[in-house]
Design goal:
There is one protein chain. The chain is an all-alpha fold and about 500 residues long. The protein has one domain (about 25-215, about 235-470): Growth Hormone, Chain: A (Up-down Bundle). Helices cover about 70% and strands about 0% of the residues. The chain is built from 21 helices and two strands. α2 (about 30-50) runs antiparallel to α6 and α2 runs parallel beside α8 (about 160-185).
Length: about 500
């Protein structure tokens, strides 16, 4: 565990490296980021490929709506116990091997879930579908934690937020592809084998790229002072520091709740809208707008934060605006014939909500330094999966049967469900998480402070020091004293 002496030693070593000009960014960092991004995109398409055509899937395989929902919900359930293992693999085994393992799990899972549509005798298609989704869920825990680590290990500090944004937004891009492609491919039940085969192609290509193009986990020379100290804490020690870091815990719980809400929204969107007479194609369009505007917002916000370092302000404002739009969705989604309003609401929900995801991940790494990036980002995601599973179970459990049938466009057993209470609960939870984040979260930028203290141009960084939030004072021997070991104050002691 790093103490004041260790922090001071790291600061002096980083200063020596900086004076020698030993920090270097390699062009092949973009290849690594490309592979991780494509893998994350493919994994997300496999996760949500069933949700936009849930009613047709249920009819074709003779499943209930709840069984189809479990094909998406299994991602939450599998990733919760496997998440800690994925954190250890990323921070201990290495980024390259974690990515290759993830690629193979993703590809094998895509093949396994297509077996019921192959010319072989299958007694229980649901078992193969669930088995394939489970392997893809294992892959998700490895790839979803990777962008923050790739950004920290391979990119200089002025490109980290942008690199993290690209890798993180690849996942919702996969959700976008699934929302558009699944309804386009599946017009009737007989089209489902084609859909499953199409989703196997990118999984196979990314597996080939990961196996053949990635040769090292870290560059020969670190690109920044922070990269030189990456993963400085042992696995268990790092988790203990995270749990004792109040600012990190508040951010993780609130942002994890946001992840859970958006995951549930993506899975249940078609079921919520079809009850009011909206088609699968329109639900897919709303999901696509949700992602497209999220990616555009993330691009602009990532570039802005890279220049200004306003991580906290961006996350808080984004969360508050998201809550307002979530309330609007809860109200308008229960009305018929509101296609323009729903499309606009889904666009704004993505613009304000999804765009802050990579910034929040980067903020989690900043306020938890020197804990490894895999642990810092991974624990946030695990909490998001736990909260997402609970939220999705609550939303589906609170649906009630309508007394009178409406103008439903659903197939199967979804046509008489009422989602009003569920959508209001989703809006209420989003508002609650936003309020807690704004009122109680005041993180300090530990990594940027440490890099500023280790820079050979100490005088030139005086202005930067003034703009970075300071860590709150701690009493010697207090419960957070070990956490302060990685702070700049320790580096100067």
């Amino acid at each position: 565990m790093a103490g004041p002496t260790g922090a001071a030693q790291w600061a002096s070593e980083s200063l020596a490296l900086g004076e020698l000009g030993a920090y270097h960014a390699y062009a092949r960092r973009w290849v690594f980021l490309l592979v991780v991004s494509l893998l994350s995109c493919s994994n997300a398409t496999l996760w949500l490929s069933f949700a936009p055509v849930a009613d047709t899937i249920a009819q074709y395989f003779s499943l209930s709506t709840n069984q189809v929902n479990w094909l998406s919900l299994v991602y939450f359930m599998v990733s919760i116990p496997s998440g800690l293992v994925a954190i250890w693999v990323l921070d201990s085994v290495g980024l390259r091997w974690a990515t290759v393992l993830c690629a193979w799990l993703n590809f094998i899972g895509s093949v396994l879930r297509a077996i019921p549509c192959m010319p072989v005798s299958v007694q229980d298609p649901f078992a193969f579908l669930m088995g394939g989704q489970s392997l893809c869920a294992l892959a998700q825990t490895l790839v979803i934690f990777s962008p923050a680590k790739v950004a920290a290990l391979w990119f200089p500090e002025h490109q980290r937020a942008t690199a993290n944004m690209i890798g993180t937004m690849a996942n919702p891009l996969g959700v976008l592809v699934a929302n558009v492609l699944s309804p386009a491919l599946v017009k009737k039940g007989d089209d489902i084998p084609i859909m499953l085969g199409v989703y196997m192609i990118p999984a196979g290509l990314t597996c080939l790229l990961a196996t053949s193009c990635l040769w090292e986990s870290v560059p020969p020379t670190p690109p920044s002072a922070g990269a030189a100290q990456s993963t400085s804490e042992k696995f268990l020690d790092g988790l203990k520091l995270l749990l004792r870091n109040k600012a990190y815990v508040i951010l993780a719980v609130c942002f994890g709740g946001g992840i859970g809400i958006f995951s549930s929204f993506s899975v249940l969107l078609q079921q919520v809208l079809c009850v009011e007479g909206y088609s699968n194609e329109f639900a897919g369009l709303c999901g696509a707008l949700f992602i497209v505007f999220g990616i555009l917002g993330a691009l602009g916000l990532g570039l802005y934060v890279d220049r200004t370092r306003h991580f906290t302000e961006a996350v808080k404002v984004g969360f508050c605006l998201t809550s307002l739009v979530c309330v609007a969705f809860a109200l308008v989604s229960q009305l018929r014939g509101q296609t323009i309003a729903l499309a606009a609401i889904c666009s704004l929900l993505g613009l304000f909500g999804f765009s802050v995801a990579p910034i929040a991940m980067e903020l989690a790494v900043e306020c938890s330094f020197p804990v490894g990036e895999g642990a810092a980002a991974g624990l946030v995601f695990i909490l998001g999966q736990v909260e997402g599973a609970l939220i999705m179970l609550m939303l589906t459990a609170l649906t009630v049967r309508r007394v009178k049938p409406g103008f439903s466009a659903c197939q199967g057993d979804q046509d008489s469900l009422d989602w009003q209470v569920s959508t209001l609960l989703m809006a209420g939870l989003c508002t609650l998480f936003s309020c807690c984040l704004v009122l109680f979260s005041h993180p300090s930028y530990r990594r940027l402070q440490a890099e500023a203290s280790a820079s050979p141009c100490g005088g030139d960084n005086a202005a930067l020091w003034q703009t970075l939030p300071e860590a709150p004072p701690r009493h010697p021997g207090g419960p957070d004293s070990s956490e302060a070991a990685g702070s700049p104050a320790a580096a100067h002691s």
